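User: I'm preparing a small set of examples for a lab meeting where we compare how different chains pack in three dimensions. I only have the primary sequence for this one, and I'd like the structure in token form so I can line it up with the others. Please keep the answer compact; I'll paste it straight into my notes.
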Amino acid sequence: MPSRSSLENKSNALWKKYLSQTHISPEAPSNFSNKFWDNYRVLLEKSKDELANAPQKPSNEALIRDKYQVYWEYNDTTLNGEIQLPRSHKLFNTYAVVAIFALIIYLSVPENSFIAEMAYKLLFFGSIVIFASSFLIKFSPRKALCTIELHENHFLYQLKIKSEEVKIQVPYHQIKKFKAQGEHLKIFVKDQQALTYSPSQKQKQAILIPMDIENTFHLRRFFDDITQINRSNH
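Assistant: Understood. Below is the structure token output for the 234-residue chain.
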């Protein structure tokens, strides 16, 4: 049986023989490093490509366009209805000016003169007309034709009152909420300045839609979906 020392000597001899016969190139570490960085660059480019091709979250504008297609692709996009609006106070204002003018004249001339008597009568009858007119104005609203034209990224709100016409272009992304108020549906927007008015002096015109406008069921559901999309952006 060979001794322990003879086995160790034999093992050392075999190891020396292996080392002497094995040729290790001095360029091997450099080649390994280059190969490693080449593979890293390939993986990095592949990761960028995968990120670029990954499905992106659709924008609010795209979501709104999708909703528009869902609700209005096969439905009429021009909706008509009739709305009752408060009457103008122009008549009241005109008679108020006349009454004030008559009062000034009455106080400026002698009490028993003909002019003072005429001014007093004008003031008296003017007061009656003002009272009656203001009462009628308050309790007799006027009817107007309301039309809504639905487009892919906005709707056009139109009011026609005899010869007067008001148009308001409302981008869907500006709709903050809508609320039922009496017989109307009132639209609230984020920024009043983002709307387009025609004529421009009608910027204080509220957007009131009659409850019984054509296809009101789809319209209200459409507005509800839009407000949820706009709300999710915050």
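A couple of notes for your slides: The chain has two domains: 61-86+143-231, 90-139. The chain has six helices and eight strands.

User: Perfect, thanks.
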